[in-house]
Amino acid sequence: MSRTVLARDPLDAIGDVADGATVMIGGFGPAGQPVDLVEALLEQGATGLVVVSNNAGNGEDPLARLIRDGRVARMVCSFPRQVDSWHFDAAYRSGAVELELVPQGNLAERIRAAGAGIGAFYTPTGYGTPLAEGKEHRRIDGVDHVLEYPIHADLALVRADRADGAGNLVYRKTARNFGPVMAAAARRTVAQVREVVPTGALDPEAVVTPGIYVDAVVEVAAPLPARTTEARA
Amino acid sequence: MTHLHDARPAAATAPLSKTQIAARVAADIAPGSYVNLGIGLPTLVADHLAPGSGVTLHTENGMLGMGPAPDPDDVDPDLVNAGKIPVTELPGASYFHQADSFAMMRGGHIDVCVLGAFQVSATGDLANWSTGEPGAVPAVGGAMDLAVGARRTVVTMTLLTKDGSPKLVERCTLPLTGVGCVSRVYTDLAVLDVGPDGARVVETFGTTHDELETLLGLTLGRTS
């Protein structure tokens, strides 16, 4: 796909998602979470998903409900345990969802590596810990490193503040978090933005995610609350 | 026995409170440093950095120049720290994505990282992410990246657990966060340096070198 498409609504934006797809979901807790796109994924119906996201849902937010409904086969994340992550907790304890726990910096760098076409990399993070067990390691310049592989995805769902018609994105404050690296790492990237502005209205010097990484944009002026307790009708 | 630090007010003659531990950590942070403060006791360090010290706080979810908590009316859901708690931005702040944030950390650009701990070994191994409880949902966040990334990683903790077991140990029994990554430990009873040559007492609070050795069951070096 080449040019960014401006979608009518979140469901139109995510398009077809196959069962078993790997889906990256941006956000650090509620900050930067593409809530409306995940709600659309819930509605779309794909199952057996591998979800890559820093956290594993809060309260009754759409990611938590994807897990509750048995739609997620595997979570790849750094911090699934939160005070209100009861749906993940239950699914993990019952064995309904598999967990790959990844240190947050390794998660970010593995996603970045996928978008940058890097085959694998050595990092000191995690060496000598249970999370590096069974991984190749090597001492480089006197420091022990662990070999880590990229994480690719079929679909990335991210949230930005504004997009222009070329799909360029700018984010807002710490809501940027995983958006830029996830946008580059997936075969298809969909961005939920507060506002779509005319092409040329974003300062090219200030663009954070160039439109080449973005396949579809949907404007959601009034997003669902990040910690929704019920799905909005 | 006359001790160099006995002349210091209060601090040397009684165990430190959490606030005093935080102040003691802050006193060691050089003006102009870039600093990452972990969740819990380490966050208190921010309250003791001298105004005008020019210390810049990094939060690994993607910001330099983090300021204190906002007034309740000014909470911005897009502006949070690593504990997902609302914060503010100071003049000169910047935002960046997760890979940049951890590259900044891992690349040795952050001068000091202050972390909490369940256990630290005499050689500087750190255990602070898992209590090893069977069946518990594991979560690591940025702990492992922070432990090995900063130019200097220090720990704040009470020296003993609530049931009186030492947290500074010969060898960690809990799952490790990093190997040989901690250089100094600030506790209620003492400040100790740890590393390849073992643990060494820097300063004591309401206790003595010999009492610490008995308490910890370790042979501790002395500051020359």
From TrEMBL, chain A:
Signal peptide: none annotated. GO terms for molecular function: CoA-transferase activity. InterPro entries: 3-oxoacid_CoA-transf_A, CoA_trans_fam_I, CoA_transf_BS, NagB/RpiA_transferase-like. Gene3D superfamilies: Glutaconate Coenzyme A-transferase (3.40.1080.10). The keyword Nucleotide-binding does not apply. SMART domains: CoA_trans. The keyword Transferase applies. Keywords: Transferase. NCBIfam families: pcaI_scoA_fam. Belongs to the 3-oxoacid CoA-transferase subunit A family. This is 3-oxoadipate CoA-transferase, alpha subunit.
UniProtKB/TrEMBL annotation, chain B:
Keywords: Transferase. InterPro entries: 3-oxoacid_CoA-transf_B, CoA_trans_fam_I, NagB/RpiA_transferase-like. SUPFAM superfamilies: NagB/RpiA/CoA transferase-like (SSF100950). GO terms for molecular function: CoA-transferase activity. It comes from the Bacteria. Pfam families: CoA_trans. Belongs to the 3-oxoacid CoA-transferase subunit B family. This is 3-oxoadipate CoA-transferase, beta subunit. It comes from Promicromonospora thailandica.
